[in-house]
Design brief:
This protein is mainly β. It is 7% helix and 30% strand. It has helices at 146-149, 209-212, 217-228; strands at 10-13, 33-38, 56-62, 80-81, 92-93, 106-119, 122-128, 137-143, 163-165, 201-206, 243-247, 250-257, 260-268. The strands form 3 sheets. Strands 1-2-7-6-3-8 form a 6-stranded antiparallel beta barrel. β6 (106-119) and β7 (122-128) form a beta hairpin. The longest helix has 12 residues, at 217-228. Mean pLDDT is 79; it is low at 164-175 and 178-199.
Length: 271
């Protein structure tokens, strides 16, 4: 078999310092901004000429942290996986999911392009809604074309839209918690799939003001959005043990009580 080699054109700078807490799909959390910094060979303004005319872009990137065995040259892959949306108890074919344990370990995300930036000789892109770990390699960038990329009749398979837990919420086209976008369809929120556990739940979050004040303003809205999506693994959701989420320059500790997540501590992370 002939092998093909690809190389990164850029790397991601994001507030996600660990895999835990990263939304499982792009554009699920409002206010989540990050920066794509082009590598030296591709740090050429002409290479992004015209990109600023597009509102959204596709990112082709690598699951750089998914090695099952770090001693192996290539990441391990699995023919079947347990999607978190199914509670980790049902197996699906890897090609029917967006699991990181893939033969070629590639991911793709559609994100909002906020700015094409050129500063001090460095080309970068400011984007919103990326579900990527800090340092993730970006292999390609393409403009999102609504007339061909948006498929209105597409079905969702076993992946249902979010439903609220603990209080009434509305969900827009992107499935964000507590938000209905201009072209959203709230009537579809809460549709059930035939597979038990396929529904994603948005939870109520209690974040005391004195703790929220310890978080930089730019990170407050994204952190609350991440917690609303409940970052805990399915098998941990019945536990009353504290969980921790590292985001930006802070470590957030929270517990689950009476169907909602309660933030109990905020600590500054060392650089």
């Amino acid at each position: 078999m002939k092998l093909y080699e690809i190389r990164p054109v850029a790397h991601m700078r994001s507030a996600f310092r660990q895999k835990y807490g990263i939304p499982r799909q792009p554009r699920m959390v409002d206010g989540l901004r990050s920066e794509i910094v082009f590598d030296h060979e591709f740090n050429i303004p002409e290479a992004v000429r015209g990109l600023d005319k597009f509102s959204h872009i596709w990112l082709i990137w690598g699951f750089s942290e998914n090695q099952l065995n770090m001693r192996e040259l290539h990441p391990a892959w699995r023919p079947t996986v347990r999607p978190p949306r199914l509670g980790g108890s049902v197996r699906m074919g890897v090609f029917a999911t967006r699991s990181p344990y893939r033969p070629n370990s590639l991911g793709m995300s559609a994100v909002k392009l906020v700015e094409v930036k050129y500063e001090d000789g460095q080309v970068s892109l400011i984007v919103e809604g990326a579900d990527l770990l800090d340092g993730t390699p970006i292999y390609d960038i393409k403009p999102y074309l609504p007339y061909s990329d948006a498929i209105t009749e597409a079905t969702e398979g076993f992946v249902a839209r979010p439903e609220a837990s603990g209080k009434t919420e509305e969900f827009g086209e992107t499935g964000k918690c507590g938000k209905t976008e201009e072209h959203g369809d709230p009537e579809r929120a809460g549709e059930k799939d035939d597979i038990p556990g396929a529904q994603m739940t948005c939870v109520e979050v209690e974040f005391p003001d004195h703790l929220l004040a310890k978080v930089e303003e730019q990170y407050r809205k994204p952190i609350i959005g991440i917690l609303q999506l409940d970052p805990r693994d399915a098998y941990d959701r019945d536990s009353d043990k504290p969980s921790r989420l590292a985001f930006g320059n802070v470590d957030i500790e929270f517990i689950s009580r009476e169907g909602k997540l309660i933030v109990t501590a905020v600590r500054e992370l060392a650089e």
